[in-house]
Design a protein that fits this description.
The chain is α+β, with helices and mostly antiparallel strands. The chain is built from four helices and twelve strands. The longest helix has 32 residues. It is elongated. It starts with 12 loop residues before the first helix and ends with a strand. The structure holds FE2/S2 (inorganic) cluster (FES). The site of FE2/S2 (inorganic) cluster has 13 residues, from loops.
C-alpha cells in the first residue's frame, strides 16, 4: 500500500527570490522597530547626572510666618516647608511637609547637649552635629516630624509638655529626649542654618526602629 507524501512546491526561482526578500525585509523592519521602541525605554532606566545630583542634600526655606511665631514663644511650633522628592526615575517634585521648631536659649541648648549626649558624639556620620542644629540668631532647633519608632507623625501636647505619638504612645521631652513608649531613640534633629535672615533646613529620612541614626535619604 503506497502512502501519499507531502510535497511543498518550491515555486519558481522568481517566487523563491521574492520569499527571501520578504523574510529579510521582515527581520530588518522588526529590528528597526525594536530599536525605535527600545532605546528610549533603556535610556529611561539610566539616571541622568541631573537626577543623580538632585537626590543629594538640599537646603529648604522654612515658612517665615511660622518661624516668626518662634520668637517670644516657649512652646514648640509646627513649621511648614517644601522639599524635593525623587521617586524612582520620575521627575523630581516638591512636596509640603513640616518640622517642629523648638525655641531654645543658648543655655537651654547647652542643657540639651548634656541631656542628649548621643547626638553630639562624632560617629563619622554624614550629619554634622552639633554645629548645624542650633543657630544662635535663630534661637531654635528643628526636629523631624517623623516618629523614630515606625514613622508616624507625633504631636505636641501642651498640658503635659511632651511630644506624643498617637500610633504606639512614644513620648519625648521638649528637647527630643525619649521618655516613654517603644521608640528606640529620641527625636531626630535636622540641620538648620540662617541664610540672610531666612531659616533653612535639610530634610532627612532616618531608618526607623533602631537606636542609631542611619540616613535613608534626603527626600
Ligand atoms: S510610630 Fe510613633 S510610637 Fe510607633
Amino acid at each position: 500500500m503506497s502512502h501519499a507524501e507531502a510535497y511543498a512546491d518550491p515555486g519558481t526561482p522568481l517566487e523563491q527570490s521574492r520569499r527571501r526578500f520578504m523574510a529579510t525585509a521582515t527581520v530588518v523592519l522588526g529590528g528597526m522597530v525594536g530599536l525605535v521602541v527600545g532605546i528610549p525605554v533603556i535610556a529611561s532606566t539610566i539616571p541622568s547626572q541631573e537626577l543623580l545630583s538632585s537626590s543629594g542634600k538640599d537646603w529648604s526655606p522654612l515658612d517665615p510666618t511660622e518661624v516668626a511665631k518662634i520668637k517670644g514663644n516657649t512652646d514648640p511650633v509646627k513649621i511648614f516647608f517644601k522639599h524635593k522628592v525623587q521617586d524612582g526615575y520620575l521627575p523630581a517634585s516638591m512636596v509640603e511637609d513640616y518640622v517642629w521648631g523648638v525655641p531654645m536659649t543658648p543655655a537651654q541648648y547647652d542643657q540639651m547637649k548634656a541631656q542628649r549626649a548621643d547626638l553630639f558624639q562624632d560617629k563619622g556620620g554624614e550629619v554634622g552635629y552639633p554645629d548645624e542644629i542650633y543657630v544662635v540668631p535663630l534661637g531654635f532647633v528643628v526636629f523631624s516630624s517623623i516618629c523614630p519608632h515606625l514613622g508616624c507623625k507625633f504631636n505636641w501636647v501642651q498640658d503635659k509638655k511632651v511630644f506624643l505619638c498617637p500610633c504606639h504612645g512614644s513620648e519625648f521631652k521638649e528637647d527630643g529626649d525619649h521618655i516613654a513608649g517603644p521608640a528606640a531613640r529620641g527625636l531626630d534633629p535636622l540641620p538648620l542654618r540662617d541664610e540672610s535672615g531666612k531659616a533653612e533646613v535639610i530634610w532627612i529620612r532616618y531608618k526607623a526602629a533602631i537606636a542609631d541614626r542611619v540616613i535613608i535619604s534626603y527626600s
